[in-house]
Amino acid sequence: MARRVVVPAELLAVMCPGEVALGRRESHYVRNVLRLRRGDAVILMDGQGAEGYGVVSRLDDEAVSVDLTEFGRSAAHESPLHVTLLLALPRGQRWDVALQKATELGVDRVWPVYTRRTQLRIPPDKVGERHERWLRIAQEAARQSGREVAPDICVPEPLGTVLDTLENERDVDLQLVAYVDAAGHAAEAGLEDLLSSSRARKVVLLVGPEGGFEPAEIDLCARYGFHAVGLGPRTLRCETAAIVMVALVQYRLGDLG
Ligand code: SAM
User: Fold this and answer.
1) Ligand 1: residues whose CB is within 6 Å?
2) Helix/strand/coil for 114
């Protein structure tokens, strides 16, 4: 079976047939992680749906090259449901876990948001570096789960800015915010109530920070057309809430199960 390697889009811009030299990171991956040999079949993918099919033509300590014989596009593993996940940027590994799992579950776009109780603020001069890292996590998760398309990862923005931007995307069918109040009670409307009667094709899901949303933020979301929903009687960590919410929505309206 041909192994998949995510490469920058420009590498696939060669004439076909043609040979491409992989970069340092991809060469390491082919040589030391996949442990491919000369002549092994490989698929180079750009994470945006373009694929190049070929064989490893050179593999030594200095370089790895792939001889591409054919190009194509594939979307066979993409859900018919378009999901944007908005997640209040959590600290540490939680974001990475949510990003990785959301990618595996088929989301189209992941957008970190700053809410009033978001503790982590990324200094502007560090955003580019973080964003690069997030793209790599998403591309790796896409590759591992057999997706040809990695989700778009946005740069963090304040909640109000994100809601304004989404308001201009007129084809969104359903917007849900997962909410637990200060006493730990989840919003009364369960997801099932909203999803069982829905035929939505494009949804936006919002999950709050470790400290939860302030009620005024839930009011703001309601003004933008979001429904507050509960995810059951237990308070979930934010990354768990994000994974559960995406999984339930994909199960009901997408391609899970
Ligand atoms: N102590 C916080 C509070 O009072 O809101 C708990 C926040 S929880 C760790 C992080 C986020 O996950 C929440 O803002 C909410 O979006 C989501 N969440 C966790 N458990 C939930 C539940 N049972 N129902 C709905 N949303 C939930």
Assistant:
1) 178-180, 182, 186, 207-208, 210-213, 230-232, 234-238, 241
2) strand
